Amino acid sequence: MLVVGGGIVGLAAAYRLSERQPETSIAVLEKDPVLAGHQTGHNSGVLHSGIYYKPGSLKAQTSTQGRQQMVDFCEANEIAYDVCGKVIVANADIDLPRLDVLAQRAEANGVEARRITKEELGELEPHAAGIAGLHVPAAGITDYTQVCMKMAQTLTGCGAQILTNALVASIREGSNSVRVSSRAGDFEAGLVVTCGGLQSDRLALQTAPDTQERIIPFRGEYFELAEQRRYLVKNLIYPVPDPDFPFLGVHLTRMIDGSIHAGPNAVLALAREGYTWGDVDLKDLSEVLRNPGWWRLAKNYWKTGLGEYHRSLSKKAFVKALQVLVPEVQVEDLVPSPAGVRAQAVSREGKLLDDFVWSETDRVLNVLNAPSPAATASLAIGTQIVDRLLAHKS
Fold first, then answer.
1. What topology does CATH give the domain 214-352?
2. Are strands 236-239 and 251-254 parallel, antiparallel or unpaired?
3. Which CATH number does 1-83+139-212+354-394 carry?
């Protein structure tokens, strides 16, 4: 089997296959000089509980089991993690019915979640503001880059090839095999899985030209609290999310190294790998602007989008959003932190696809959309990918 993409989903698929069929020859091709260099290496490190996701969705199915599998993996491989719990904070009466919906989803998804009062919130997060909340004990934190390094080490120890600087130029599917041409050479495999993240639609189009979904890159910008102000946040503090928008809003997250990250917002990146406003790729940008899905999306969410851009361009506005959660946070408390770019699949109708999406041909499985909680759920997703691939053999 050949895997295109050396992020956590691609590595997890290879890892799960090596467990299931240790005799199978496995190769992983990553276009960058390092593994896990994009979404995996730029996320908040949260072990998500599964509370947000629509019951019955693939995200709901894989996040709860995937979280426990990830905890077990970290435990077995001495990777730092902490199941510290989080609070989801209601700040206004409009949030209360949304909090009830989350509690119902938690019950349907088998996630422990307890409705808490303002006083109980103060015990868990003394500096947080809110009129009520949900306490989710199963949420936690880890370092997903370290997880990837351990998966890669285990794979190479079992004889797998992991090649970096291996940008894929073409994927050609034949009746008996798939030929993949890359900067690292040409390969032939019986089965191929593409987990390209920000490049996933382009990879899928190689063997599935009817693919309608397109990736639109959204940059999430972060700050972190100055070291002397870290005491303001004990663990994880989240707002009640807007049910019509697949981004969770700015929140405060303790990282495994003890730092406190604040963010992210969500603004259109001007390149697929556009981590700053100065990163502009005209080809990438023109693809977005020629995509009818983008214009339909912009029409539906322009008010929300304006707020995201305002927070991007104004640190004061960013802080104001954080003060809804922790009023003591001040502008001078925040220092810049590296941004991430989310690979968001969008339909031609302008719908933000909020679940995992993949397409299959006879010999190729393309992971088209792997949004959060993909890192948390990666081992469970890897199992599903392997199940599908092995079904092709039967």
1. D-Amino Acid Oxidase; Chain A, domain 2 (3.30.9)
2. antiparallel
3. 3.50.50.60
Measured CA to CA, the distance from residue 378 to residue 13 in angstroms comes to 8
* Residue 264: closest CA among 272, 280, 273, 275: 275
pLDDT tens figures, 350-361: 999 989 999 999
Residue burial 41-74, b: 16+ Cβ < 10 Å; e: rest: bbbbbbbbbbbbbeeeebbbbbbbebbbbbbebb
pLDDT at residue 183 in the model: 97
C-alpha–C-alpha distance, residues 59 and 381, integer Å: 9
Q: Which residues pair with 192 in a beta bridge?
A: 2, 364
d(CA 86, CA 101): 17
Q: How far apart are CA 98 and CA 93, in angstroms?
A: 10
User: Amino acid identity of 119?
Assistant: E
Domain ranges of the chain: 1-83+139-212+354-394, 214-352
Strands 168-173 and 114-117: what pairing? unpaired
Q: Which residues of 187-207 are buried (b: 16+ CB within 10 A; e: fewer)?
A: bebebbbbbbbbbbbbbbebb
pTM over 0.90: yes
- CA gap 259, 389 in Å, rounded: 40
Burial class (CB in 10 A: 0-12, 13-18, 19+), 391: exposed
Quickly tell me which residue has 């948390």 as its tokens. Answer: 376
Closest CA to 144 of 248, 266, 12: 12
